[in-house]
Amino acid sequence: MKTQGNAANAVVNISSNNNLRFDFLVFIGRFEPFHNGHKAVVDRALTIANKIVFVIGSDKKPRTLKNPWNVDERIVMIRRSFPEELQASLVFTTVCDVLYNDEQWIRSVQDQVNTAVLEQSGNESARVGLIGHDKDASSYYLNMFPQWEKIDVPDMGGLSATQVRDAWLDNNSNQNGNDMLIESAVPRPVYDFLLSFKRMPAYTQLVKEHEFIKQYKQAWSAAPYAPTFVTTDAVVIHSGHVLLVRRRAEPGKGLWAWPGGFLNQDERILDCCIRELREETRLKIPAPVLRGSIKAQRVFDHPDRSSRGRTITHAFLFEFPTGDLPDIRASDDADKARWVPLSQFFGMRDQMYEDHFDIGSYFLGAV
Question: Which residue intervals define the domain Nudix hydrolase in the entry (predicted)?
Answer without folding.
Answer: 227-363
